Amino acid sequence: MGELRAGLLGVGMMGRHHARVMRELDGVELVAIADPAGDPHGVAGPLEVLPDIDALIEAGIDIAVVAVPTRFHEDAALKLAAAGVHALVEKPIAESVEAGARMVEAFRQAGLVGAVGHIERFNPALQELRHRLEAGELGAVYQIQTRRQGPFPSRIADVGVAKDLASHDVDLTAWVAQSEYESVFAQTTFKSGREHEDMIAITGRLTSGTIVNHLVNWLSPMKERVTVVTGERGAFVADTSTGDLTFYANGTIPLEWESVTAFRGVSEGDVTRYAFPKREPLRIEHEAFRDAVLGKPSDVVTMEQALRTLAVVEAALESAREGKVLQP
């Protein structure tokens, strides 16, 4: 098979990066770009900026990336499925679980690859973390905690912080632990004058029994992207903004300080920061999508998986409204 003819819908803040990676990807040729808002970042180059998804499909594409606001995901995806075009849709999969379910069914019936851009799975720190958990280096996993905080991004207008950012944490947690969410409880705040929440705190439990906690907001002056996995032998700390992974081992050296030895728990041990290859997550994500389309082994995030993530996020939002624990 020759190069896959690729189209890109949306060349905003995220779409411009998709365009760059698609142009550098082996086996893929970016042949068409569409955005009704034009080309604010000047990424089209020699390509005409087409007006909509219909024009993009008419360009004769094999695959497409959808990087437009969430409320437009369903319409674009359903049209791509009807045209026989494989699609990678930015996260969250859709504005609602119902819309996402329609997308899943459309791609299933058409026999096409439907993928969603939960890019954190491809972060080198989290990939290394999952490999080490699978190898049993931590032993039993007790708790997974994430913190994703920073200033408000002007690019987001149609969803709140839960669907835009907490969806990352829900997806990566279930993926790293290889366990689904059993229950969630959440609280939200609305401080920036918008109709959508700008802060959410989620606690819950996975079917494996692991406790989870997520702190997510658009109200912090500093940016933080941290995942902490605590278990039987210590704790892994993944900083996904830098791609670093550090292991804090439980202490094994006897303590002679009486007030400390009275504590029946773990103590501080060796600290190790691992060295490993750090490739760009977006490039790895595109490679996984390409390989899935070509029928090769791939870790692509499927629409079915992304729909499950959205269901957990929506359950968290409903929990915040109703003030009770819910099962997604």
| Run of helices and strands | EHEEHEHEHEHEHEEEEEEHEHH
Total tally of structural domains:
2
The CATH architecture classification of the largest domain is 2-Layer Sandwich
Low-pLDDT stretches are none
CATH topology of the largest domain: Dihydrodipicolinate Reductase, domain 2
Question: Overview of this structure, please?
Answer:
The chain has 328 residues and is α/β, with parallel strands linked by helices. The chain has two domains: 4-120 and 283-302, 3-Layer(aba) Sandwich (Rossmann fold), CATH 3.40.50.720; 121-276 and 310-322, 2-Layer Sandwich (Dihydrodipicolinate Reductase, domain 2), CATH 3.30.360.10. It is 32% helix and 27% strand. The chain contains nine helices and 14 strands. The strands form two sheets. Strands 8-9-10-7-11-12-13-14 form an eight-stranded mixed sheet. Helix 3 (73-82) packs parallel to helix 4 and helix 4 (97-110) runs antiparallel to helix 9. It is globular.
SSE arrangement:
Elements lengths: L3 E6 L5 H10 L3 E7 L14 E2 L2 H6 L4 E4 L6 H10 L3 E5 L6 H14 L3 E4 L6 H11 L6 E9 L11 H17 L3 E9 L9 E8 L4 E7 L6 E8 L2 E6 L4 E7 L7 H4 L6 E6 L7 H13 L9 H20 L6
Parallel strand pairs: 1-2, 1-4, 2-3, 4-5, 5-6, 7-10
Antiparallel strand pairs: 7-11, 8-9, 9-10, 11-12, 12-13, 13-14
Brief overview, please?
With 328 residues, the chain is an alpha/beta fold. It is built from 9 helices and 14 strands.
Any descriptors?
328 residues; alpha/beta; Rossmann fold; Dihydrodipicolinate Reductase, domain 2; 2 domains; eight-stranded mixed sheet; six-stranded parallel sheet; 14 strands; 32% helix; globular; Gfo/Idh/MocA family oxidoreductase
